[in-house]
Amino acid sequence: MNFMNEENRLDEDDHRRLGQELDLFVMSPLVGSGLPLFTPRGVILRDELAGYSNELREARGFRKVWTPHITKNDLYKASGHWDKFGNELFLVKSQETSDQMVLKPMNCPHHIQIYASRPRSYRELPIKFIETTTDYRDEKTGELQGLSRVRSLTQDDSHAFCREDQIEEIVEDLIDATKELYKTIGMGLKVRLSFKDDGPGYLGSDDLWQHAQAIMEEQAKKSGLEYFVGEGEAAFYGPKIDFMAQDVLGRSWQVATVQLDFVMPGRFKLEYVDEEGVGKTPVMVHCALLGSIERFLSVYIEHTAGRFPVWLAPEQLRIATLNQDDKIVAHANELCKQAIKAGLRAEVDDSNDTVGKKIRDAETAKVPFTVVIGNKEIENSHLTARSRSDLKELPSMQADELFAKISDLAKNRE
Prior knowledge:
Elements: H1 15-21, E1 25-26, E2 37-38, H2 40-58, E3 63-64, E4 70-72, H3 73-79, H4 81-85, E5 91-92, E6 101-103, H5 108-115, E7 127-136, E8 152-162, H6 167-185, E9 188-195, H7 206-222, E10 227-231, E11 240-246, E12 252-261, H8 264-267, E13 272-273, E14 279-280, E15 283-292, H9 293-304, E16 317-321, H10 326-341, E17 346-349, H11 355-364, E18 369-373, H12 375-380, E19 382-383, E20 385-387, E21 397-398, H13 399-411
Parallel strand pairs: 3-7, 9-10, 16-17, 16-18
Antiparallel strand pairs: 1-2, 4-6, 5-6, 7-8, 8-15, 9-11, 11-12, 12-15, 13-14, 18-20, 19-21
Helix pairs in contact: 1-9, 2-6
């Protein structure tokens, strides 16, 4: 569906309408359904969120890796994903090889191959990989909707390979990172322990599952999480701690996840050598703090109604000219350069519109701060910023002080 044709039927705060009005993303029938294209403004949102998510885990010992977007289907046959999700995979045909290729739908089997690339010692563990990358799933056309359900989804993915005695510290770190991220962006969290039910399709023995589920429940208790158990919500390879974000309308959305996996390392015959020189199988902990960035944005755009905090706002400061006098326009552009040098995302509106129209345009674009430049501002060098309605007013101050103040708000993720 091309939402451009549906805009009159969308609610005011629907992320598809806001995505167009705020110039965040577009859909193209030539590109295909469920394949959003992000504009420069939308990419700022993606990059700032993913950067923060990565920063929180890099501070806890995760290191970036990179993997290609296509792979032989043998990789997913080994992991079990082919049997479980084979009908959701995009198949890729090569003109040079007979290998059966697919677009990657997830990243864990690739990270496993990096771990498996050489012998590992217990002294190296835990080994922690992180990768923000786009995956592809052949979702049914009728289920595609804006950014909520797409065929190209970007995950802030990570995997830790560890000894069993290291699980507690790793899971605790990831829970803490999740709490910090959602506190910063202003969304409350509920927690679901996603366990297996009696249905088919799970890999591993019942004893292994009971052991893994007991570990995750104990971790939830030690971390002080209030949780409920969702039977049948586990991944096919292990139990999860799923975080459910609450938006301003009281709706609940599954976002971050921490997953414990005793199964996949065994399927790939992963090993490390313990203190006695004996080969042991590591445990994997899967984690994404945002989950699908596209899906997260569909929630967050509606949660904020597009009024993003200063640190996330695609445009943090707009400098509007009183008129098109050459001297005023030149001064506005010089101030914009100073603001950008101070680390701000700033733009100049030197159009022929009235000042009132320029201010309304900035309000519609939900820009946090707007400054009007005329001869008075040139003469006394003080600037008065108009703050967005949900933000605190700032006093009149020198330009460099104003830019530093807004920059501090962004650096402090306010």
